[in-house]
């Protein structure tokens, strides 16, 4: 256990001054910390503030720094490949000015250095979402001959499921995270980029390299170690700390920020969220009760102007599909817009398209909430199959009633559409259970189906080899089958008749 309150806070603060650039910098950090926790009660602030100031150095971004965990980015190239070379792209005067200023800033901060490398990649100036220019290096040629690092990124759904039971959340934002990771000295020459002013190479990890995410995930996993999946989770540079009580949360923040500070990793205090009851993470609004769409993304969808081209219509449906797990009947609603997924589709905005567009906006504006799977509550799976689709809805049974955990569906292949009714229903069962294995394996659940013959699935064998093979696949699961009339299985029924995604 970690004592959340140092025995002598004043001494702890003064000790930190020796590690900071100046007392003025420490004073600035103190002000930022007070602002960061201003939403908490006075008692809670008294517990958390000393912990944050104990690790004040982690918030000192006055100078660029390099992590000290012994991990460097390497760029192994495939055998028998020579250095890739490109000429500098021609740019407008304004773009050349942006390019030159960015290079000078990176030189002064030791992010890059002059190079005499045989490698070279061109620079492009692109617009960020807010319209501001961004300096980027086009590493496509280098990436094409780079051996892939397959170090895994965590699954977002696995991360979200770990939030169950948590009452307090903190997100930590790394200050220019990639630029805190050193590049191996022998590989710096491969990062070289060419401009109208000369050739330069990176001392630290640049954006755009194919193996950069793998290196960064490996590094941050190494830093957090056993804290991951217990009190903190990380997806690249997005870190979240979660706890069941405030007292535990203070201890957990101490451990996580302490580990980052020890590794010399710097945080952008202005973009951190500390000890919140709700916050946004990886595109979702995380709450103690479950997850829902973020206000930002919902507003972006609602404010999306009525499409006037097929490309705009496709962009809208792609944006809405990110949250399709929250919306029953999604594919039914969105069906008129699916025609615009075809690159050659002609743009004809019908009344049906307008209705789909308006309905999706309305559904998202209601901020639907999906429950966490806690591993204890009884589960109920509703499944159904139509002539061309299969679908399912997983609920957990609570005292307040059934709460959806997720919706899923897919279309059937041409061969599957020729199955008999009982085969299609069994296909829906096997597919849904297989997809939901992380939730269902090792836990008894109730299967609801409007197809009565499935009720005999576990009681007798058939003369159908396909059904018998599927029945064997289900032997790892413990479930009871309950027949419900189709009208009482309307959500799964609709999902199957209007499936949301093609088969894997």
Automatic annotation (TrEMBL):
Residues 107-286 form the Reverse transcriptase domain. One of its GO terms (biological process) is proteolysis. Pfam families: RT_RNaseH, RVT_1. Keywords: Endonuclease, Hydrolase, Nuclease, Nucleotidyltransferase, Protease, RNA-directed DNA polymerase, Transferase. InterPro entries: DNA/RNA_pol_sf, Retrovirus_Pol_polyprotein, Rev_trsase/Diguanyl_cyclase, RT_dom, RT_RNaseH. One of its GO terms (molecular function) is endonuclease activity. This is Reverse transcriptase domain-containing protein. It comes from Didymodactylos carnosus.
């Amino acid at each position: 256990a970690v004592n959340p309150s140092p025995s002598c806070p004043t001494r702890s603060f003064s000790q930190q001054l020796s590690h900071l650039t100046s007392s003025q910098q420490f004073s600035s950090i103190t002000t930022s910390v007070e602002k960061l926790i201003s939403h908490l009660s006075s008692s809670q602030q008294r517990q958390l503030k000393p912990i944050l100031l104990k690790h004040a150095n982690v918030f000192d971004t006055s100078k660029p720094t390099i992590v000290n965990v012994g991990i460097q980015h390497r760029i192994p190239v495939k055998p028998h490949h020579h250095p890739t070379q490109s000429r500098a792209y021609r740019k407008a005067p304004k773009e050349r000015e942006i390019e030159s200023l960015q290079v000078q800033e990176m030189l002064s901060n030791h992010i890059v250095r002059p190079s005499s490398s045989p490698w070279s990649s061109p620079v492009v100036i692109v617009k960020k979402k807010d319209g501001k220019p961004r300096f980027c290096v086009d590493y496509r040629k280098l990436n094409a001959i780079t051996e892939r690092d397959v170090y895994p990124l965590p699954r977002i759904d696995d991360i979200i499921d770990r939030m169950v039971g948590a009452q307090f959340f903190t997100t930590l934002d790394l200050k220019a995270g990639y630029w805190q990771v050193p590049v191996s000295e022998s590989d710096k020459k491969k990062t070289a980029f060419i401009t109208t002013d000369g050739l330069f190479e990176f001392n630290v990890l640049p954006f755009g390299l194919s193996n950069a995410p793998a290196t960064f995930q490996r590094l941050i996993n190494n830093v957090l170690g056993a804290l991951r999946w217990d009190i903190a989770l990380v997806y690249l540079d997005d870190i979240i700390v979660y706890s069941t009580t405030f007292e535990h949360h203070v201890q957990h923040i101490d451990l996580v920020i302490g580990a980052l500070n020890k590794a010399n990793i710097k945080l952008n205090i202005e973009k951190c969220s500390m000890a919140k009851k709700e916050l946004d993470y990886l595109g979702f609004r995380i709450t103690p009760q479950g997850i829902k769409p973020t206000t930002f993304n919902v507003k972006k969808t609602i404010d999306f102007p009525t499409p006037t081209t097929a490309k705009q219509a496709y962009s809208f449906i792609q944006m809405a599909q990110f949250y399709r797990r929250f919306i029953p009947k999604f594919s039914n609603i969105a069906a008129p817009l699916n025609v615009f997924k075809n690159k050659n589709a002609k743009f004809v905005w019908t009344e049906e398209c307008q209705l789909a567009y308006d309905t999706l906006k309305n559904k998202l504006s209601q901020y639907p909430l999906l429950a966490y799977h806690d591993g204890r509550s009884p589960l109920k799976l509703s499944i159904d199959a139509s002539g061309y689709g299969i679908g399912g809805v997983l609920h957990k049974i609570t005292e307040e009633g059934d709460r959806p955990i997720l919706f899923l569906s897919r279309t059937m292949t041409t061969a599957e559409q020729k199955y008999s009714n009982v085969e299609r229903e069994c296909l829906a069962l096997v597919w849904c259970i297989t997809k939901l294995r992380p939730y269902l394996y090792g836990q008894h659940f109730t299967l609801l189906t409007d197809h009565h013959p499935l009720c005999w699935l576990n009681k007798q064998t058939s003369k159908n080899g396909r059904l018998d093979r599927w029945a064997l696949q289900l032997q790892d699961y413990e479930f009871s089958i309950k027949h419900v009339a189709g009208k009482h299985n309307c959500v799964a029924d609709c999902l199957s008749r209007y499936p949301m995604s093609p088969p894997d």
